[in-house]
Please model this.
Amino acid sequence: MLDKITKKIEGVVGQLPVTHDIKLQIESTLRTVLDEMNVVMREELEVQETRLNRAQSRIESLEARLSELEEKNLKG
Model:
């Protein structure tokens, strides 16, 4: 994502030569701004979504198991 934004900025700057150092500075600045805005990258969001789905599945499994145990306890 940062690379995409950097390339767009390079396009706006036009024909000015953008050195590797300038590109790194732009990326660093963008990263700082995005961090301050609490923006997460798609990759981070996908990882968290996977973790959340796994946790939700585990919760459902534990709830079902708890219900089974409660039923057995009431019958037994």
Remarks:
- Residues 41-76 form one domain.
- The radius of gyration is 24 Å.
